[in-house]
Amino acid sequence: MLLAHFIFAAVFSLSNYSYAESVAHTERYELARTFVEELVGMHQAEVLMNRDLKAIPQNSDRTQATMIAIVRNGTRTRMRLNVTIRLLQQIEPVDKNFESLISYLITMYGRKEQLYAEMVDAGKTMLAGEKPGVDYGVLVGRMPEVRAQLEFVDESIFKAVPMLGMLMVSDKPDSKGHLSHFAITRKEAQEIISMIQTGFGKSLDVKEQNWTTSSASILRTYLRDKGFKYSDDPWQ
């Protein structure tokens, strides 16, 4: 009877560990994928914005066309950021560090959404034409400040990439007691790397990168070049 109880307890413990390991694997993958999707989305939004600005004819009302581009691209960005925040909120934290990073990213993305909302509102006000009580000089002067704050947020996100890279490493030691494997499979890692390379293209090879591209470059380096094995590689 005592032996049966011991066997049951051992099996139950192993099954719980296996389940916890499976959850940790899934949540780490979802976090990395969601993070990269947002990076790619932001990069593409920047490309579209620059394309819209370059397409404005020289002999047209450039101020109005610029405001239209700001409203259109800013609205798209706000919608995407809100989706990203909801996806992060659905991820189950596997430990305190994981929970802290998710909370941090939600805060950063929320701040970005607020700043883009301010830009969109300013653009709409400018497009509506002159109205009494509106200081258009203040609106125009505020735009560079908003851009500077967005750059600061992007830099803050960049500084969180090393933590994300470390969280991709499995807590399960190999036969030598080393943490040598990622918690995600080789296929999953290659999928994320492919998303980065497809989404950013040649901008990954540019020496002077903005914070968004630099974040993608650093994460690609962690997943591809740091020498870690993947969860489906031999655990030796």
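The above is record 1. Record 2 follows with the same two-line structure.
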Amino acid sequence: MPIPTFAQSPAPNLTFQIAAGVAIGILTAAAIVWAYTNWQARQALNELSENAARAIRTANAQARAQAEAQRAKTVADEEEAARLRLVAAAGQRATEVARQKQASEADARAAAWRRFYQQPARCTDNPTSPTLVECANEFIRAKRAFEASYKPISQP
């Protein structure tokens, strides 16, 4: 039987087809691996982008909340300061009214005393010692009587 030569043999064509199929399979596998790796990289990049965007939104929200809290505190502090100024002003007004009332009552009391007590002439014209003692005692008795009978304006 004669030995077939390479040119006559169907194997080179089959070998070429197998080699071509293997090469196409390797290229296809490589393309699939490349596509999968590329897809994973895009997924990781998307996830990183989403995480970064989420972190930025969270930081912005926290900054807004902190700014709002600070603004609210500032407003509350200003309101408290205004309230304290009003209280202080009211206290000053009340103190002034009380001082004026007290001065008015003291003036009214002094006027009532001047109307109540008239010093006798014998006590004003260079009195002697016994007369001076008698005048002082009379003054003290009159003052006690006045104090016992005097009712301030504000009392009913």
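The chain has two domains: 12-116, 117-156.
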